Write the structure tokens for this entry.
Amino acid sequence: MLVTKTVAALATRRIPGSIRFKHTVPDLPYDYNELEPVISAKIMHLHHDKHHAAYVAGLNAAEEKLAEAQHRNDLAGQVALQPLINFHGGGHVNHSIFWKNLIGEKNGGGHLHASPLKAAIEEQYGSLDTLSKLVNTKTAGIFGSGWGWITYNPAISGLDVITTANQDMPSTLGHVPLLGVDAWEHAYYLDYNNVKADYFKNIWRVINWKDVAKRYDEAVAHHQKK
């Protein structure tokens, strides 16, 4: 599998002195209990501090091995590392979007304000309720682990609903990620056990639509220039 442009760029970045760039886990933009009762502080600690950190550590380790393989001109070794870079790099990128996609109800979570995004949702799907149900249905249909996404699809110049397996990124399909729903068990199991349908239903209460709307505006502006 070919490495995506996003992750390929990560794999070659350096800082002065030939010291390799090290990825770090971004701080949460809110307290760990911000999303309660929809998502508990316990899950946020585990999800952010352990799982996201594991993807970052895996990405850094894979990039070190890639640099060594490049130094040796070991093409086979470089190609063999691409699945690891895609997986851990995707985990880092996807989760970095996910944290910003969320905000507590008391701070506006779940409120879709008037915006070009709201107008696009209503034009394409009729209502946010219809769109959220479509996302939930598709995400619930993921075999194993993965993500449900609302994206901007340049091919149709509009919104789209897709799923990706494991930690694959929407950019691998030519889509711009706007909103991601993490369907891995570590995102919900401590709170919802095996009833992931309740997790999918409740997460819409803590969606940061201002962040999603900003991503939509940027995607539209970028692709209109092309």
Q: What stands out?
A: The CA atoms of residues 117 and 123 lie 10 Å apart. The two ends are 27 Å apart (CA to CA).
